[in-house]
Give the backbone structure.
Amino acid sequence: RLPNYVQIKEVAPRDGLQNEKKFISTADKVAWINMLSETGVSEIEYSSFVNPKWIPALKDAKEVGKQIKRNPDVMYSALVPNMKGLEFALEAGIDGANVFMSASESHNKKNINKSIADTYPVLDEVINEAKQEGKRVTGYVSTVFDCPYEGKIDPEDVIRVCEKLFASGVDDISLGDTIGSAVPTQVEQLLSPLLSRYPSEKLILHFHDTRGMAIANIMTSMHYGIHRFDSSVGGLGGCPYAPGAAGNVATNDVLYLLDGLGIETGMNEKRIQEASLFIQKKLGKLLPSRSLAYFANA
Ligand code: HMG
Ligand code: MG
């Protein structure tokens, strides 16, 4: 049985832009996020408060946070790696802090320069402080299916990280197919044990679409009762510390699917297409979304 309603978090201003070589000006980011704010989406991850040396494309996170026009119906969140990031994020204004780590040791090390064991105390402090400030906290877990360095990841490794993060106080967890490699059977093998531990509203699926499997994986996730997904307009995105990873599943394609299935999202597909065309023009390259290409050529 499919859900009646699906909640989308738009991650393009963070996951989408973090890997782009071309720097999008602060004014253009702000104009674009303001467009996204009028699409009916319930949450936008507007930037990332990581070390700007690691992710130069988002070095203006603070300015972006201060300048965007906040729609009261939208939740604005940002990626936060540590206390310094949280301090900047609180100054810029966030409704939610998104902490992150990996289920695989080597991706965790490459991405955040720490072992998994050393990451917990850092995130613990961030989660505690963010909760004290009244913020929603999401924990991203990366490489939940495959790791670019280690190959297949055991669902037990993912469960262990999820247990730790929930024990530390995250409100929900976003499970990342970081390199976009999973097929539906892998989704089933992970969701089965996770959903026997946690209610479906606590879990979000975050698919990258490197091999074109994301829509099939979303369909499978929905059959398991998942009704929250991360996606990115135009299919922008990728992780610079996961070689070969392409963009997130395109919001455009997810909306086409959900609309066709009669599943509500509260979102306006045309406005999503327009926001995609805006950033496509600024980046000066075609974005991978198939339904965007169809819209643009129609
Ligand atoms: P580090 O170098 O180990 O940090 O980096 P450190 O604590 O040793 O500090 C070193 C320097 O960085 C110091 O400056 C700090 O002040 C500075 P210095 O004294 O040398 O001048 N620093 C900061 N500056 C600004 N903001 C901060 C900050 N923290 C330290 N927040 C760190 C550790 C985690 C910061 C670094 O490894 C980092 O920034 N990593 C981010 C990598 C990243 O953004 N990856 C992509 C996002 S994750 C992703 O895409 C996956 C996801 O989409 C889900 C999925 O698809 O699976 C979420
Ligand atoms: Mg990602």
Remarks:
- The beta strands are 7-10, 43-48, 75-79, 96-102, 136-142, 146-147, 151-152, 172-177, 203-207, 228-231.
- Residues 15, 18, 48-52, 54-55, 79, 81-82, 84-85, 100, 111-113, 140, 142, 176, 178, 206, 208, 239, 241 surround 3-hydroxy-3-methylglutaryl-coenzyme A (ligand 1) (CB under 6 Å).
- The first helix runs from residue 12 to 16.
